[in-house]
Design goal:
- With 491 residues, the chain is of the alpha+beta class.
- It has 11 helices and 21 strands.
- Helix 3 runs parallel beside helix 9.
- The N and C termini lie far apart (64 Å).
- The relative contact order is 0.10.
Length: 491
Amino acid sequence: MFTVIAPTDRLGTSVLADAARSITRQLGGAAEIASLVVRLLVDDAHDRSTVADPVPILELRVEANGTEIIIELRDHGEPVSGPPPVVLSIVDLGFATSATGGTDGMSNVSKVWLPRASHDAIFHDSDLEVVPEDAPLTDATVTLHQLEPADAPSLTRCIYRCYGWTYPGTDFYYPERVAAAIARGDRIGEVAVDEHGEVVAHWGAVFVAEGILESGGTVTDPRFRHRGLADQLGDRLLARLVDLGATGRLREPVLTHPATQGIALREGATAVGILLNATEPIQQVGITDGLLTHRPSLSQMYSPLTPLEPATIWIPATYEPIVRHIVDGTDWPRDFGHTDITAEHPETSSVSSSYDSNRHSGEVTVSLIGTDLVEALDDTIEQLRHAGAEVVTVRLPANDPALASFGAELEVLALSFASFVPRFGSFGDSLMLQWLRDPDVDDSDWVFADDRIRSLSRLVVDQARELGDSSVRRRRRSARRQTLFAELLND
């Protein structure tokens, strides 16, 4: 990591921008984009600075992170809840892959991820063909081992042989990204390889929070199916998760594929959410054939890997029926708290957010709930909406008594229920809501493993449509009022 410290003035801006340009060039990234990003971040920090004497100090950090370069700027001005809007525009244009902004208790932290040359090195399929679903089975010997960085190219080839260019997890088509994630420890997995060292089956997981992993990427070459490879890899992976001290496991099966939903349910997972319009439209083969013209939705499943401690959750009335629907079907030791309007709460919420240009999605995390919760989220979601987000998820601390009080009006922001996950790492119990640019969710191709997922899906979709329609009606009423006022003023 490279660190540069400079004052928040014209000279400091030039020093930081030049440093970012030079370092990024040496790391194999777009030097001029890095320089521009730093200038924009510094300008934003200057505008938020509340101290004139002495001149505030800025800290720039630049580091290589696998196939990307992280540009990080720290300042001590007014708190932020996300990256500056102009930086979000750079992300949406594809010059950067993602950006985040928020506070860490010590300073404001803004981060931008820039691609290195290897980031876009996509797999070449010139010498491979997709293996038909009905291909003859083989009894060739396979060996099981932990996924290693060297397996990344072979894993990509396995994905292609099974699904062509249609697999929803598009990062798998970029071997350098996969290898970097394995080397960093962000991704783990188990693979079966044939006598030539080619991956023929895989089951993996990525860390999403402290002690929480999301498992998936389950794939088996059609020629090697019906011999229990997926079960063997799944058992090996679960044993590793336990050894690593994982406390919970998430899965996100697509709602067009009941088989993967069924696997999770049979292994004891609980359906805890429905993530609507979660990814970019894709073409699917072997799941639901054909091009999806709408954004696919995902189910979310959760399994505690260690016993849950008793806890109380405070859920706003709008979302409590769905959370009760989930919790009542489990043995989780969760009690529902009651709103206490006499308690004192901070005025300012602590909010951070990020934007992903590949999925055109935003993520907002609230670590501290204040009396300004609705206003803070409204401003943050509006920035992400203008940046091009098709969907924005908002994660809220369900163990905070303030949530039931100051989250009571979140429905006016067209935020509908997404998921409830108990013990989401150090965050505690997590209530996640979702804003949709298009709340008229297309569920015509959804297929359910059983009624548990069907009933939860119905509750979530109905609420999203209802709150989305209400939001549209409110905006139209507001527009009509403004038009009437303008006409009165003109008279």
